[in-house]
Amino acid sequence: MSTLDEVYQRVRAQVGTSRHDDLGRVSARDFQRFAVAAGETDPVYFDDASARAAGLPGAVAPPLFPTSVLGWDAGPPQDALRPDGTTDDEMAGLPLAGLRMMGAGQDIDFHAPVRDGTHIVRETSIEDVALKEGRSGPFLVVTLLRAYRDASGAPLATSRENLIARPEAEL
Amino acid sequence: MTTRFFEDVAPGTKLDPLTMRPGRIQLFRFSAATWNAHRIHYDTEYAAREGYPDVLVQSHLHGCFLVRTALAWAGPGARLRRFGWRNRHIAVPGDTLTCTGVVTACQVEASGGGIVECELEERNADGVLCAPGTAVLELPRRPEKDRP
């Protein structure tokens, strides 16, 4: 396995690059399952009439739906998962194999709500990577900038997110 | 929920706190709904090997709790313009997580929208800060004749 410093250098070389993913069409069922799982009860997520009464065009997805979903397609078969159960795709295709990943937070600007039938297209830019020293050893912080748009190109949300990558635990 | 107007809010106004108690079923369903197979959220043995006392509440679920706190306080007609959070401390099934917030700034933008900025905190029963956040909301405005 390569050292954290080698991974850092490989990710560093990709800063400034971006990739384009067609995430497909969202159904009300997708975001309503997310809403139920998150414990939401606000009828604007479930009921068109309630949403319209609140000035919305119809039922909308909870704000964090598009930036929380990790897998947008069928995903890899089980034996292609990384040892911690995550997928390479979640890591924006970055060369982070052999590292443990953890979400550290996001900063999101909301432009328009996701609704039943919204077709989402996402552009992900590798904005930065930093090698840091923590109490339990060194780790990487990868910063991704993600722009979510609908099929016509109209912006839905823009998110800056931090991922923490640490060396594999001793198994 | 009652409508909360921009004119009725000022810096220092406290948001209504919300308390959540995420359990294993909620974590499982949240992972399923986000197609997240990360073992840290359902495999207790795996979590122990990483040094954690139990499976972990998802990063984004902490975020959802803070968003709900802001939107439930803001009421119908409010719009979330911007939201950010950080994961500072872990939470596990059965933890009691209390989300609080306070208004830090209010301003009217050029287009007339009433913009309110809030600082948010999610803490566990020991008072440890699990997730700080900020939200920028647009609140409905009172009719001009009723404004102070």
Automatic annotation (TrEMBL), chain A:
Give start and end of each FAS1-like dehydratase domain: 13-158
A Pfam family hit: FAS1_DH_region
SUPFAM superfamilies according to UniProt: Thioesterase/thiol ester dehydrase-isomerase
Extract the signal peptide range.
Answer: none
The protein depicted here goes by the name Acyl dehydratase
Q: Which organism is it from?
A: Actinomadura litoris
From TrEMBL, chain B:
Name-wise, this protein is: Acyl dehydratase
What organism is recorded for this protein? Answer: Actinomadura litoris
Recorded GO MF terms: (3R)-hydroxyacyl-[acyl-carrier-protein] dehydratase activity
**Record InterPro entries:** FAS1-like_DH_region, HotDog_dom_sf, Mitochondrial_HTD2
Residue intervals of the FAS1-like dehydratase domain = 12-128
* One Pfam family linked to the record: FAS1_DH_region
PANTHER family according to UniProt: HYDROXYACYL-THIOESTER DEHYDRATASE TYPE 2, MITOCHONDRIAL
Locate the coiled-coil region(s) and give their ranges. Answer: none
Q: What highest taxon heads this organism's lineage?
A: Bacteria
